[in-house]
Amino acid sequence: MLAEPDGPGPGEDHSLTAHMAARAELAAAYARAGDLEAAMTTAGPVLALPPALRSATLPPRLALIRAAVADPRYDGTARAREFSEELERWTAP
């Protein structure tokens, strides 16, 4: 798994929305690569966002993670099923 950046450096400004979108896309890449634990760890902060901070750009990205977790390599694993259900709850209207 890649190292987490420390955040914006001096004179830099990173939006929360962009940061969370990047995390979701990285989590989808981990899931597609077969690293479910890294996907779950990377997506954790996105899934922990309170409703007031959730962006409309995130559900489609979380759907990409969910599609990757639906891969047959994860069939029957409780962790994948729980993660998929958590993603579904987050994106439910």
3D architecture notes:
This protein is mostly helical. It has helices at 16-32, 36-47, 58-69, 78-91. It has one domain (16-91). The protein is built from four helices and no strands. Helix 1 runs antiparallel to helix 2, helix 1 packs parallel to helix 3 (58-69) and helix 3 (58-69) runs antiparallel to helix 4 (78-91). It is globular and about 45 Å long. The model has no long low-confidence stretch (mean pLDDT 88).
Give me a quick take on this structure.
The protein is an all-alpha fold and 93 residues long. The protein contains four helices and no strands.
List the main descriptive attributes of the protein structure presented here:
globular, mainly alpha, single chain, 93 residues, 59% helix, 4 helices
Topology, pairings included?
Blueprint: H1 16-32, H2 36-47, H3 58-69, H4 78-91
Helix pairs in contact: 1-2, 1-3, 3-4
